[in-house]
Amino acid sequence: MFMDASNIRQKSSEFQSPVLEVIKNRRSRRAYSDRPVEHAHIQSLFEAARWAPSSVNEQPWLYVYATRQQQPELWNRVFDALNDGNKIWVRLVPLLIASFVRTNFARNDRPNSSARYDLGAANAFLSLQATHVGLNVHQMGGFDPERLRANLNVPPAFDPVVIMAIGYPGDAGVLPENLKVRELAPRERYLQNEFVRNQSFLPQSTRDRERCLRLQCQRNTEPHLSAFIFFAVDKHFTAIELDEFLA
Fold first, then answer.
1. Kind and range of the H or E run holding 50
2. N or C: which end of the chain has fewer CB within 10 A?
């Protein structure tokens, strides 16, 4: 299927190919138990992040973590930076991690355009390790970066990127109704053919033509004609070939 804003993009909750169990089991839950996260597990999360790939092995990430029961003051400094919508469910989370990037290379102080990408890889490793030991990770971009910077006295060389809520899964029944519905809903992801290509992009004029043809299909009452148009578009018939057929 050709990707275009006019398409209805297809999703599924089923896995199309075999993947690791930790990938199947990973969720971004909002319901947490108040059970503390063991120190050994916390260390294992950062050990997983440590071994993530990065541009020229720069490893530009930095983490500040706080446990709610043992470090309530530090925990509250991180919590305070969250948006109100996140505070509703984060209030019981036992472990918060603020993640940062060093914006310039340490070796030459030049801007590192890959820093945020590299942090994303490290956070992905951390999240999968968390799933492996029975923990849930919910990453949040909904926070005030400047408030977090002030609360933690973050040096100017580092930028805040995401805050992670981590802990053991809890009872979804404690969540507000709107969040409980989202918590219990099955995960869905776009099908591979929505974001994977094995060819170059078409010229803009051809893409515009395809868009018009797809809209025509949606209005067309003749199923055989609609099926042909979709087949022709997906096989990248030229606009001239399509025009000749539809004339």
1. helix 39-50
2. C
C-beta of residue 32 within 8 angstroms of C-beta of residue 167? yes
Can you give the pTM of this predicted structure?
A: 0.81
Say if residues 29 and 135 touch (Cβ distance below 8 Å).
no
Which residues make beta-bridge pairs with 158? Answer: 102
CB 154 within 8 A of CB 16: no
What's the pLDDT at 212? 67
Element (H, E) at 164: strand 158-167
**Residue with token string 């190919």:** 17
Angle between helices 239-246 and 223-234 (to 10 degrees): 170
- Burial (CB count <10 Å: 0-12, 13-18, 19+), residue 228: middle
Of 211, 204, 203, 199, residue with least CA distance to 242: 211
- For 18, residues 6+ apart whose C-beta sits below 8 A from its C-beta are none
Report CA-CA distances (Å) from 244 to 1, 35, 107, 130, 206. Answer: 22, 68, 61, 57, 15
